[in-house]
Automatic annotation (TrEMBL):
Name of the protein this chain belongs to: Putative serine protease PepD
Keyword Membrane appears in the UniProt entry: yes
Top-level taxon of origin: Bacteria
TM annotation in the entry: 231-253
Pfam families named among the record's database cross-references: PDZ_2, Trypsin_2
PANTHER family in UniProt: PEPTIDASE S12 (PTHR43343), PROTEASE DO-LIKE 8, CHLOROPLASTIC (PTHR43343:SF3)
Compositionally biased region (Pro residues): 70-88
Organism: Streptomyces melanosporofaciens
Entries under SUPFAM superfamilies matching the protein: PDZ domain-like, Trypsin-like serine proteases
Positions of the PDZ domain: 500-580
Matches recorded under InterPro entries: Chloro_Bact_Ser_Proteases, PDZ, PDZ_sf, Peptidase_S1_PA, Peptidase_S1C
UniProt keywords, alphabetically: Hydrolase, Membrane, Protease, Transmembrane, Transmembrane helix
GO MF: serine-type endopeptidase activity
Amino acid sequence: MDEPKAPKPKWWSRPVAARPGDRSSDAAEGAEERTEAAAAQAPPEPVDAPVEARAPEEAAPRPLHEPDPYSTPPYGGPGPWAPAPPVQHPVATPAQGTHVPPGIAPAPPQATGMAQAPPQPPGTAQMPLQAPGMAQTPPQAPGMTPPHGTTLPPAAGPVPGQSAPVPMPSHPGMTPPHGTQLPVGPGEPHRPPAAMAQPAPTAQWRGYDPWAVVPSPAAPKTRKTVSRRGAWIAVLLIALVAGCVGGGIGAYAERDNASGGVDVKLPQAPVEKEARAPGSVAGIAAASLPGVVTIHVRGSSEEGTGTGFVLDKQGHILTNNHVVQPAGADGDISVTFNSGQDAKAEIIGRDAGYDLAVVKVDRVSGLTPLPLGNSDSVRVGDPVVAIGAPFDLAGTVTSGIISAKERPITAGGEKEDGSDVSYVDALQTDAPINPGNSGGPLVDRKGRVIGINSAIRAADDGSGLGGGQGGSIGLGFAIPINQGKRVAEELINTGKATHPVIGVTLDMGYTGDGARVNTKGAGSGPPVTSGGPGDKAGIKAGDVITEVDGVPVHSGQELIVKIRSHRPGDRLALTVERGGKTRTAELTLGSASSG
């Protein structure tokens, strides 16, 4: 009979004699005491069990760690002499309802302290024992993991080809811990653990060895870097788009804030279609504009722009002489009507002394002649309207009043012989007149022409009157329509205009008051024409004429203006001074041709 052997220690430590002061010895003593206490609580062995001869017991080695009720490896670092613990791979216990290998029949739960059922012969159905008052455990489907707390049957025995699992104490009625191999039921074939339906261990724990050298992680792949220039371009584009979007949103929000989020609609009067009063500026302009034209002149060396107005249905148009003068003998003259219609025009006649000219257009229908008024009926302060094309702005209308009458002016004088000088007993107006207004009509409140706009006093160099140069300062002058009508009729009928004369030569350099008769005649002739109006009235060389029909004259220019304001054949009364004595001389005006 073999000698009984001492029980082997259940821990992964070697029995070593305790040394005084050793920590492990103290721990072993505590563990021994706990082991003895556990043994005292174990159930007594049956009395009728055979008694075997026992060898004298040796002192059991003390474990280095206190026992673990869950049969897990000892915690803490092993001693330098202890072998390495087996590698543990974390494997999760299948969840409830997961299929387990067939053959594992869960045992019904059994209360602690209940009597075990006697073994049944093979082929006999075993009835689970149930404590009174306990709920029936529902049957489990084959291959399903029992719920937690279900007692599992003991293993039928070691499985061939597999080492016996380490015995692990478990509490009654508790499911084994996660990762524990389930035992195979009696009479069921063994299935390898690989057939169990459980998740495969991750690559992190596959082949884990706590004492192995962990290789350094592989270097990360180098990312493709974007060039700094491309990054800046992308940032600028994003900023530009964001700025545009933000600006648009801001502008829209600002507009909504300014208007309170509602489109603003301002009140406005309806369109008035009724005509204006005939005596208003608007009514006068509406009636007069169709008869006013813009004249463009182009000559060989110069060109100009002016205004004119229609005299009759035959196409005669009256304007200033200085307007058409640049055309010369073979220049080009075009007329543009207020409707926009253009037509070629030709000169019928012109007179530099009166600064008047007549041109004519052919084959133009629908002409609107302007009615002529009477300049002798004009009074200072009467409202007037001036129409023209200042600076080639056709159809410009300005208004004002008659500022003065019989204002003697001279214009021109660019030629050395003075043949281009015009003498006008003009109407003065404050209606704005500018370059381009020359030749245009000055109409009264009834729309009748009372004058021809001819000259302005400019504020440039103070050199005198001009034919439309400079800008308006409220001093405009117009040829009275009475004089214009007579000259226009003569130019249309004969192509020439006649001037009234008294038959004397004046001293234009005289600085005294009045007009003095020259002591020398023009050229080789006498200063007083023999048999002329002055000779018949007894006027002598050196006499000074101070009045014409009782109106004082202060210079030779004023005497000419006064005489030309009359027609040939009119009778005048002149006040003459000679040798300190004054007398009155009456005469009939003669006639002189402008040609």
